[in-house]
Design a protein that fits this description.
It is a single chain. The chain is an alpha/beta fold. It folds into three domains: 146 residues, NAD(P)-binding Rossmann-like Domain (Rossmann fold); 135 residues, no CATH class; 75 residues, Rna Polymerase Sigma Factor, Chain: A (Orthogonal Bundle). 45% of the residues lie in helices and 15% in strands. The chain contains 15 helices and eleven strands. The strands form two sheets. A seven-stranded parallel sheet has the order 4-3-2-1-5-6-7, sandwiched between helices. It starts with a strand and ends with a helix. Bound molecules: NADP nicotinamide-adenine-dinucleotide phosphate. The site of NADP nicotinamide-adenine-dinucleotide phosphate has 29 residues, from helix 1, strand 2, helix 6 and helix 9.
Length: 389
């Protein structure tokens, strides 16, 4: 029986992770659950799964959580990053599912790496900003990092047993979000941007899908995961979202991974790998997809994707700046403080204003944290200027 800690258990993906663990109850057991502020759902999950650790990110909600847990206080109830770190480093914890939004998971992830846990990571923002450090430390400590993002899980399967030097290119597929076929991106309403055609998801990633920044973050995530040059990572719009990504080898052979678009499959894959077990997915029906379409992305219209390519080409902290500015810009759009079309503009301004601490080298953990903070506050200032009447 493997014991699992889920960081971000109340989110869209976290809830899917718990469904998978319930389905595979003879193999996996919940050891820890962490959320930011949703005490209602976290308490219900704790009562259902009876973990040893329950963590609430927002420490001001600790009393409220304890009240909601009521008599069920056999578990340790902790707060914040320290609480998550304590849970993931326990000797009994085997697997850590990282599906919390934002960068707060980085210290627990690094701590879990040092304890050589299996880390199943969905939070692409962590890999975009801290990917080099995460992958280097995983190598140093011989910890296992497995992806949950469906594109990376597809690549993981297509690349299995193949030498990376034999790869000509990888092709990340993108649903295109709600606007890929729209002429221009002016006057986009929040409700339209939140209506993803294929995947129900958290708000931040749904907006990222609409701007195609999500695919840009995945390009960087791919570079970090597989240590591939950015020129070998291509993006294709594939509105049916049935092919989750592809690898083309030097001889022209292309391997693709197909499945019903359902995040429970990549979560299960990261849990059971290298085994495969029956899943909750409906059987794939090829006759429902007589046409699989592919289109090149329009980088002029979707400037966020272009900015992501530029950021990873320059590297040296630029991916972190891109991610931080995007976090702030998307939050402002969700709050009605920034127009959809202004999202790439403020990110671009922030990238232009960035000066790396040193030329051509990797940033330390401390430098990345400082860069993230600088980029967030610089972007916020740009948004204040934009929103002045
Ligand atoms: N959704 C998908 O299909 C999908 C696919 C691939 C990758 N991802 C990635 O997975 C991550 C989560 O996506 P999502 O759609 O599930 O987001 P979401 O629905 O917004 O959920 C975010 C989760 O993170 C928790 N959280 C945030 N900050 C925290 C903190 N400091 N401490 C503890 N918990 C914290 C939230 O708790 P509260 O509920 O209490 O706020 C919530 O449980 C993102 O990085 C996204 O890019 C998502």
């Amino acid at each position: 029986m493997k014991k699992v800690v889920v960081l971000g258990s109340t989110g869209f993906l976290g809830q899917r992770a718990l469904e998978v663990i319930k389905h595979l109850a003879s193999e996996f057991q919940i050891f820890g659950l962490a959320a930011h502020s949703n005490t209602d759902l976290l308490a219900r999950q704790a009562k259902r799964f009876r973990p040893r650790f329950v963590i609430i990110g927002d420490s001001t909600r600790l009393t409220e959580l304890k009240q909601k847990l009521g008599g069920f206080l056999k578990c340790a109830v902790l707060t914040g990053i320290a609480g998550m770190t304590e849970a993931v480093t326990q000797p009994e914890a085997d697997i850590v599912i990282v599906c919390l939004s934002g960068l707060d998971g980085i210290l627990p992830v690094l701590a879990a790496i040092e304890k050589r846990k299996r880390i199943a990571i969905a939070t692409k923002e962590i890999l975009v900003s801290f990917g080099k450090i995460v992958m280097q430390r995983a190598k140093k400590y011989d910890a296992e990092i497995l992806p949950i993002d469906s594109e990376q899980v597809a690549l993981h399967q297509c690349l299995a047993g193949n030498n990376l030097s034999l790869v000509k290119r990888v092709i990340l597929t993108a649903s295109g979000g709600p606007f890929w076929h729209r002429k221009n991106l002016n006057n986009i309403k929040l409700t339209e941007a939140l209506r993803h055609p294929i995947w129900p998801m958290g708000k931040k990633i749904t907006i990222d899908s609409a701007t195609l920044m999500n695919k840009g973050l995945e390009v960087i995530e791919t570079v970090r995961f597989w240590n591939l040059p950015p020129q070998k990572v291509e993006v294709l719009i594939h509105p049916q979202s049935v092919i989750h990504s592809m690898v083309e080898f030097l001889d022209g052979s292309i391997l693709a991974q197909l499945a019903v678009p359902d995040m429970r499959l990549p979560i299960q894959y990261a849990l059971t790998y290298p085994k495969r077990l029956p899943s909750l997915l409906a059987q794939f029906d090829f006759t429902k997809f007589p046409n699989l379409e592919f289109f090149p992305p329009n980088l002029k219209k979707f400037a966020c994707l272009k900015l992501a390519y530029q950021a990873i080409e320059k590297d040296n902290g630029y991916p972190c700046v891109l991610n931080a500015a995007n976090e702030v810009a998307v939050k402002a759009f969700l709050q009605g403080k920034l127009k959809f079309s202004q999202i790439p503009k403020v990110i671009s301004q922030t990238l232009r204003a960035y000066h790396p601490p040193q030329a051509n080298s990797s940033l330390t953990l401390k430098q990345i944290i400082a860069t993230d903070q600088w980029a967030q506050s610089y972007c916020l200032k740009q948004i204040t200027v934009c929103s002045k009447p």
